[in-house]
Write a structure and sequence with these properties.
Elements (H helix, E strand, L loop, with lengths): L6 E7 L6 H9 L7 E7 L8 H8 L4 E5 L4 H11 L4 E4 L5 E2 L3 H11 L5 E10 L6 E9 L5 E4 H7 L11 H12 L3 E12 L5 H4 L1 H15 L14
Parallel strand pairs: 1-2, 1-4, 2-3, 6-9
Antiparallel strand pairs: 4-8, 5-9, 6-7, 6-8
Length: 234
């Protein structure tokens, strides 16, 4: 792999989050480290919770930004506007990368300049990093936290839609990508462990989530593009 390769990792997070340090630890354990880590604290002041203090203490090289507007999409858009590296990655604040995730995916992108993004396998789990309880079988999924993007993906397809909801922004972005020429490749290796926590909106507001997503599906008349073969246990 080229020694000049650099990438940015973006983490949207609310002001209080009990798993953020686990997520950041998995970034620092990558076999190829990111040039930048952008922590976007959204939906409140930096003084409203533990995140800003904990991150500054344990991960001083991470850059922290504050955004009044809540939600993952505004946070991602803010980070993307400041991002200058060729490769871009994302991690949810309660998820964990495997150590080879970034290196493996960047290598695939380097080997094929036509590719705009590479995604991989996702293993759902409950519990702490040290006491993981797997849920169902791993799947290959076009989740942002399981994907490494080339900047060209967002040049072609734009940023996630501010008018989309928590439940349909991902589907909407990938459906649009199918028509804007974003070229992707999947890899079966597990690259992210996705925590299904007690505050996961797909658990606390499951009915609203499926209603929103099914409405989006009806409008697009297509099969969801971001899960291959099997469906994630959300």
């Amino acid at each position: 792999m080229s020694s000049s390769i650099s990438y940015t990792t973006i983490i949207p997070v609310r002001p209080a989050d009990k798993y953020i340090l686990e997520a950041l630890s998995s970034i620092e354990l990558q076999s190829v480290l990111p040039e930048k880590i952008l922590v976007i604290v959204n939906g409140g002041s930096l003084d409203d919770g533990n995140v800003a203090t904990d991150v500054k203490r344990d991960f001083p090289r991470a850059e922290i930004y504050q955004l009044d507007e809540p939600g993952v999409v505004p946070a991602m858009r803010k980070a993307l506007e400041t991002c200058s590296t060729e490769f871009i990655t994302f991690l949810d604040s309660d998820d964990i990368w495997v150590p080879e995730k970034s290196e493996m995916q960047i290598r695939m992108l380097e080997e094929n300049n036509m590719l705009d993004a590479v995604f991989g396998g996702v293993q759902n789990f409950r519990g702490l990093k040290t006491v993981e309880i797997p849920i169902a079988e791993p799947v290959i999924a076009r989740l942002f936290q399981a994907t490494t993007f080339r900047r060209s993906a967002f040049d072609k397809n734009g940023y996630p839609d501010l008018f989309a909801s928590h439940f349909n922004w991902l589907y909407r972005w990938w459906m649009k990508a199918a028509g804007t020429g974003v070229i992707t490749r999947g890899h079966p290796e597990i690259v992210v462990k996705r925590r299904v926590s007690e505050v996961n909106l797909w658990k606390t507001d499951r009915d609203a989530g499926f209603t929103t997503l099914f409405s989006e599906l009806r409008e697009s008349f297509g099969r969801s593009p971001f899960v291959s073969e099997k469906t994630l246990d959300v």
